[in-house]
Structures are given as C-alpha cells and as structure tokens.
Amino acid sequence: MLILLPPSEGKNTPARGKPLDLPTLDFPGLLEPRARVLEALVSLCRDHPDTAPAVLGIGPTQHDLVALNAALATAPTARADRVYAGVLYDALDIATLSTGAKRRAGSRLAVTSSLFGILRLADRIPAYRLSGDAVLPGLGPVAAIWRDSLGPAVEEALGGGLLVDLRSTMYAGFWRPPAELADRVATIRVLHESDGRRSVVSHFNKATKGRIVRALLEDGGNPTTPEKLAALLASLGWTVETGRPTRKGTQLDVVVQAV
User: Fold this and answer.
1) Rounded to whole angstroms, how far apart are CA atoms 88 and 4?
2) Contact 102, 120 (CB under 8 A)
C-alpha cells in the first residue's frame, strides 16, 4: 500500500542540520527535475526579491519567505516528517506512533511536493515556500514539470499494492493514475455531517485524513483493493460509504460529526 499525502503550506524551519543534498533523496529518478525547480526558485528569490512575492503568491509582509527560498542550497535540513506541519500532520503525529507504525510509515507514506515531486518521510529537506500552482520564470508551471516526471517514480513505489490518494486537488494535478491502475486506486473524501446536512470542511478534512493514516499505520493491515480498505476503515470505527468504481479509481466518503 502506498499512501500519497499532500504537503503543508506551514513548515517548521530546521535550526541546524546538513545542507540539502539532492542525490541522497529517495526516488533518484527525480533528481534532474528537482534540480531544475530548485535552481529556478533560488534564482528568482535571490536575484529578483522585489518581484518574487508576486510570482510566489505571498503577501507583502512575508518577505522572509523570499529570503528563505534564496538560501535553500545551504539551509539546514531535517527529516520531511519534522518539516511539514499543519492540521493533517498534527493529527498524524508521527513522533508518537508505535515502533511498528513508524516502520510502516517509512515504507507506505509519500509526500507530494512542489519542489521535490514526492518525498519519503526520512528525506532531509529545508523549509521552503512554493505553491503547487506557481509559475517560475524560465521554467513555467511547476505542476507541468511534475506531470512529465512523477509517473514512473510513483508507480515503482506502488508496485502491486493499493494506492490511497489523499492529495488535495492542486497536488493531484501533478500526476493522475492511469486507467489501468483504477481498480487499485482509492481516494478519500471527508464529509462533515451536521443537522442532517453534509459538507466538505477543510479543517475536518485535513484532521480526519491525518487520523485515518495514523489508524491505518497502527493497525498494520495492508488492503489490496478500495473495497478492502473501506472494510478495514469501518472495522476501525469510521463511517465509510464506497462509491462506484471509475476509470480514475474508487472514492470512499468518510462521514464525521466532529474531529
């Protein structure tokens, strides 16, 4: 089973650690596009700090993020699971997982990244700011770079297992599973039910996905189809409704009343 996570906009900035070393990151086939995106981002923020905020979609009071990006080549790094922060990662709470669950997290989780494509939790990275919809001068849309590169890396990591795609819409556009994988692709949508009405609420969505991943890692089960995943989640206490299979996979709706 491979669980694809979205990144987080908020990140913890490592205070110390070795500088970024791209060849040491997992998924070595992504080295060349990683180097291109990194160079374009560093060049923009180093050489054009006045225009970089507009390009990156950050506010006038966030020039510290421009400086952060400009120094990426020499900035301290930490494990990706310590850099990414936010609601989903707080709910997942990697640090407090059992030993077995941590081991499974290392092999079953991958994080989508605008800068690095996909990462394993143990990959050492610096804090950075680059949205999935960014268009970098001299490079173009970062999403287009990854659409041309991610397929082989993801499919190799997936092997013959089930893909559990928890990416947000923006990052799902980096790579879409081909139709031949559809019977092994599950996406999860979290619906908040209140007073008989259901809606998608960002906070509930992110927190519940983090808790679902945590529960799956602690349980240790390895479902091979969306239907078996739905059954496992139900056995773990979730209310799950299974959609009809499509050429894109099967959507599982997890219905919650509270975080």
Assistant:
1) 13
2) no
Alpha carbon of 60 to those of 43, 56, 249: distances in Å?
Answer: 19, 11, 41
Q: Residue 258 corresponds to which amino acid?
A: A
Q: 196: phi > 0 → left, psi -120 to 50 → alpha, else beta; which?
A: left
The mean per-residue pLDDT over the stretch 106-132 comes to: 97
Count, residues in the chain: 259
Of 207, 1, 191, 199, the C-alpha closest to 104 is 1
- Would the pTM of this model clear 0.90, i.e. be above it? yes
Q: Which residues partner with 186 through β-bridges?
A: 164, 250
Q: What is the mean pLDDT of the chain?
A: 95
Distances (CA, A) of 134 to 6, 55, 141, 181, 228: 16, 7, 6, 29, 37
Per-residue confidence band for 190, with pLDDT thresholds at 50, 70 and 90: very high
**3-state DSSP call for residue 117?**
strand
Query: Residue 128 sits in which domain range?
Result: 2-256
Instruction: Report the helix count and the strand count for the chain, using DSSP H and E.
Output: 11, 12
Q: Which of 185, 189, 179, 183 lies closest to 163, judged by CA?
A: 185
Structure token pair of residue 213: 């991943």
Domain count, the chain: 1
Structure tokens at 1: 């089973």
AA letter at 193: E
Among candidate residues 198, 186, 203, the one with its CA nearest the CA of residue 255: 198
Considering just the CA atoms, what is the radius of gyration of the chain in Å? 18
Residue 201 above 80 pLDDT?
no
